[in-house]
Fold this protein.
Amino acid sequence: MDWNSATATDIARSIASGSLTARDVIGETITRLDRLEPGLHSFLSVRNHDDLVREAEAIDRAGTKAGPLAGLPIAVKDNICTVDLPTSCGSRILEGYRSPYDATVVERIRAAGGILIGKANLDEFGMGSSTENSAFGPTRNPWDEKRVPGGSSGGSAAAVSAGQAILALGSDTGGSIRQPAAYSGLVGLKPTYGAVSRYGLVAFASSLDQIGPLGRTVADTALLYDVISGYDPRDSTSVPGSRPATARSLDRTDLKGIKIGIPEEYFTDGLDPEIERAVRLGIEALVDAGAETVSISIPHTRFAISAYYLVADSEASANLARYDGVRYGYRDSQADDLDSMYCSTRQIGFGTEVKRRILIGTYALSSGYYDAWYLQAMKVRGLIAIDFERAFEKCDFLVTPTTPTAAFLLGEKSDDPLAMYLSDIYTISANLAGLPALSVPCGLTGNGLPIGIQFMGKPWNEPVLFAAGRHLEKRLAPIGCPGEESTS
Ligand code: GLN
């Protein structure tokens, strides 16, 4: 097995047929993880090696009963609760915090035989687009260690891209799965709002947050999505009913007669011409597969960033009020009275970007400003959702770039929050409208950096998005692996 390019689907098949053991897979993964971690810093914590080996051996003993993820090493973003490793959210305020329970997605992964290998680095509480906002230092992009892996699920993306894990979970509030997937040459899905349980996901902006999978191929990503999606009575926003299985229907969906919408607002100023060229070639590949294109308008797109940063920050300011030194995590024990304890705990415990968000959100929600800011943003959110409903009367799904540029250099945008926010320009609308959206690799730039193409669908149309991704994968030359010569 070539570990640089091994897929979860191949490994699972080899384990099931007995040509590979879960013990071999975990051994190889631990070796790669240890070798590459000093350069990448993908993880905030990793499980004890002996425990990992014991778990793999138990899976080998269980044989075919072990489940669809049997023996696959999986990284989990560190804002998703796990009992056996801390959940810090990349924040000093939760440093060393241990959850008393596993998130539903983690329970589901374990029940399917997946091996939780470690907790992946992230921008503090998911706030960022580069993983540079982690209180514990940035993660680097395996394709070029001078560059960011994207964010906020940058640790998850770097781990899978470098083979330190074979699959990963991220969370996506405004693009945090798809943008790092695009920057790291991976497939990443932001599921329909309500498809995957948020029980055990530390809340950033509850009306936007969704957990989703990252993998090296469409089939791998679908495999993990099928395991984690499903109704959960412990999350009041989880939608009842079964989800259509995506992995099995991948090669059965024909694109003949499918209409793909090309929203004009996603191909304007600020889009790097190299990215545009690659995405247009991707669209041609879908047309070769039988799809037709229609030009679409999502007229309120230009308000999306402003609306998102008001809604997300307002919700964040409420969600983060619980970190006050009383119940969870860090407390400034030097303070003389309760008020100063609250203030200095939050002053010391939160990083700059988190404080900026809390200030913006508190302002937008405050009496006298609520109607002008928060309410207005919610109205724009409604208009964007209507734009998509209208677009889907004319087409089956939309195709856009995932990001306006490829991975940027570490430090390039750290002093310019607006420039950082603009790297999510194509991803946030799917969160505002609750739609599923998939990023799939779509070639490399002249510098050898991965490019992502995004498919946005109607609610619950994950199977169509995955199938389109699979058609694209079959038609485009593979981008290869980080550090290798491209095969294209
Ligand atoms: N980059 C966006 C933000 O900073 C999105 C983050 C996310 O999806 N968690 O809010």
The chain has a mean pLDDT of 96. The CA atoms of residues 137 and 341 lie 26 Å apart. The radius of gyration is 21 Å.
